Amino acid sequence: MKELNQTENKNQKKRKSVNVTPATEERLKVIASIIVERIVEDQRNGLLRFKMKKV
To answer: Which terminus of the chain has fewer CB atoms gathered within 10 Å of its CB, N or C?
Structure first.
């Protein structure tokens, strides 16, 4: 358990800390949803080369 905590601490030190405000987080969610919508639309219109797996 101690080794896992040390590994996690090392990983956290490697990452740069970023302070994300709730407003920024909400904007990022909106941007991500717009991107996903456009990708799905392009795929439906045959503009993308890959095909979605049917479930």
So the answer is: C
